[in-house]
Amino acid sequence: MRPVHITKTGVLVFSICALLAPVLAKSQVTQGNIFTCVDAAGRRWTSDRPIAQCVDREQRVLGPSGVERKRIAPALTEVEMAQRLEARRLQELEMQRIVEQRRRDGALLARYPSRSSHEAERQQNLAQLGELQRSAEKRLTELQAMHAEQAKELAFYANDPSRIPASLRLSIEAAQSSEQEQQRLIDRQMVEKQRVNQRFDAELERLEMLWNAQKPIAPVSLSTASSKD
Questions:
Q1: 131 and 206 in contact (C-beta within 8 Å)?
Q2: CA angle, 31 as apex, 68 and 40 as ends, to 5°?
Q3: Under a CB-based contact definition with an 8 Å cutoff, are residues 61 and 47 in contact?
Q4: What integer pLDDT is reported at residue 14 of this predicted model?
Q5: Taking the mean position of all CA atoms in its chain, how far away is CA 44?
Q6: What's the pLDDT score for residue 211?
Q7: What is the pTM of this model?
């Protein structure tokens, strides 16, 4: 057999045919399609490709025999596209919220498998805050007693306040500042107790739903069903 000599031109032709093969194959698949529609003015259009005059409305795609193969939805306007994108964004956010809520519910159930475990942690949190509050109240009582002693000493200089020693003035100011700080600490603990109770109340409301959802449904016996009939 004689060897076949392929020129540069032959290689170029072969390459072009290889590149065009998928396009030609696709055109064979769509060959014979008939696009038809009625535009906004009521005119009927027919073409072998999508009809530009009906871009804003549905187009029917027919086969050579006239049987409908499919329908092409109208193209979206900029406003419609923006609305669709916004709807999709909101849908994705809702899905993310649902997934996050499920994750939180799972963590909540794992942490509190029963009402008693939830109540125990509530009391533990309140006890810690109560200890801080009692410590502040004790310190405040001590400072108030100190202030009372300072008031007695200060009364000695009632007739001539200019003779009050600087050390006594500084001591009184420091005690007053400490009293105010301890009172603020007590107030913060009281507010924190309210916040803790609110958080545990909200958790308990959610947990009640989750616990009830986990309870198995009791089967209805035949005797009970027949007695109801």
A1: no
A2: 50
A3: no
A4: 40
A5: 50
A6: 94
A7: 0.56
